[in-house]
């Protein structure tokens, strides 16, 4: 593990295809490049947490949890 990896990958199922997200950096890229236009409070919290974890400044565990909350808020199917 490189310090930014999630303990368990997140599988995102959507119109743009299936994605497997394994690191905070990958999660941040999805949030900033592939996210729906509607962005609520969990989106912003997840973006901050994933950016911070990808820089090694915080826990990837927290970033993963924030990403899952943001996906639920945006009604994105994750497994």
Describe the 3D structure.
- With about 80 residues, the chain is α+β, with helices and mostly antiparallel strands.
- Helix content is about 50%, strand content about 25%.
- The chain contains three helices and three strands; from the N terminus they run ββαααβ.
- It has a three-stranded antiparallel β-sheet with strand order 2-1-3.
- Helix 1 crosses helix 2 and helix 2 runs antiparallel to helix 3.
- The radius of gyration is 11 Å and the shape is globular.
Features:
three-stranded antiparallel sheet; 79 residues; 3 strands; 3 helices; single chain; 48% helix; alpha+beta
Summarize the model shown.
This protein is α+β, with helices and mostly antiparallel strands and 79 residues long. The chain has helices at 24-33, 41-54, 60-73, and strands at residues 5-14, 17-23, 77-78. β1 (5-14) and β2 form a beta hairpin.
Give the SSE map.
Blueprint: E1 5-14, E2 17-23, H1 24-33, H2 41-54, H3 60-73, E3 77-78
Antiparallel strand pairs: 1-2, 1-3
Helix pairs in contact: 1-2, 2-3
Number of contiguous helices: 3
Structural class: alpha+beta
Distance between the termini: 21 Å
Question: Fraction of residues in helices?
Answer: 40-55%
With strands numbered from the N-terminus, the spatial order across the biggest sheet is 2-1-3
The best one-word shape is globular
| Largest sheet features | 3 strands, antiparallel
Strand content: 15-25%
H/E order of the elements? EEHHHE
Beta-strand segment tally: 3
Uncertain residue segments:
none
Please compute the radius of gyration using only Cα atoms: 11 Å
Average pLDDT, rounded to a whole number, is 93
